[in-house]
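Sample pair:
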Amino acid sequence: MQRSNFKISKELPTFAILLVMLTVMLTPVSAQENSATSLDVDVQKYEPYPAEIGQYVDVWIKVENFRSGQSDDVSIKLIPEYPLSLDSENNAIKNIGILSPDTASVQEYRLYVDENAKPGTASFNVYYRGDSDSPWVKDTFEMKVGSTTFESKGTLELEDITANPGVFSPGDTGTVSFTLTNTATENTITFEGKDYDTNARIQSATLSGSDMIQTTGGEQDAGIIGPGNSVTLTFNVEVPEDTPDGTYYLDLSIIGNSHAYNNNWRVPLTVDSSSLKMIPSKPMTLVNGEGKIQFDVANLHQNTLSSVSVRPEAEGVRFSPKEYFIGAMKPDELFTIEFTAVVEEEETVTPLTLVAEYRNGFNEHTTSEDVGNFDLTEEDTGNGTTTAAAAFGLVILAGSTLFVYRKKKQDQSQE
């Protein structure tokens, strides 16, 4: 009896340990979905750039939920280090609340740069969490500090926006380029009794994406742009595969001569999932296993597509040409193409599929269209029908001759 009790007491802790391990493995899954691990924090921008010694600087913090689970009680906390300080300690923590999947919130802070600070780099910590029961997670960011403000009076104008491709398809990557022009016409200008040069300076240029569109290219410094001169800035853009059709707006932020010469532009980017439409332009009839088939190919996309080619595919049928190359197709442009089809094995013939390949910008795409079954018909073109027709014609001709002959003979007898 004592031996039996000893065995039970020895196995019980093992069972308890297994139970605890199972509980630990199962419970964190849902908790992690709502924790800070599903969040991403970044500094969207700060102004002025660089932060001026002895002045306030405004900082925009972006927090984004990039997981599939909802964060129910999101909060962020900013703790700066010298020479930075908050305008008020009461503003350190900002509660955002619920943050659904693939959504973001931007919170603004105001920091003061100590008047005894030296030009260089200052840092600050941003803490964040997904709910009130989760631990704080820390990220550290830096900003430039200095007295580099310029007295130039050149004015920048956004002159041109070029996207490649012009209209994106879901899954595409490409570029967006901006041409900025200094609109000044003279080298100097007098303002309130003081002379200024008319150079325009781009200390920092950034392009921020939307909730769906991703941008890369970092922060660009274009330097000095003289009167009447231009500069082109290019950023990379990525459109995810699941992006719905529509127009999305990107934010182009320019830090200019000083905080008084900064610019922000809302830049549209269009996404269109439509591509090529292929339909038969006449019945797909093959007589005695051979015939010509025609199709209309139309570009329904809002952008010009390049390197368009179409090939027919069907089991048991040989096509000539094997592939038809169209080339570039403008929006709403239509081409009619023709193939010769020869049936090689009638019992294996399958419905016809048209496969089109094309490029949108540098992106390669493939689309296909099931256009239906062939109409296989047989016609007798042998000598049997032709001989019978000829014989029938000879009989008629012989009868006509006999009739004329008899008529002539009757006329002679009456004379």
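The chain has three domains: 39-146, 156-271, 276-377.
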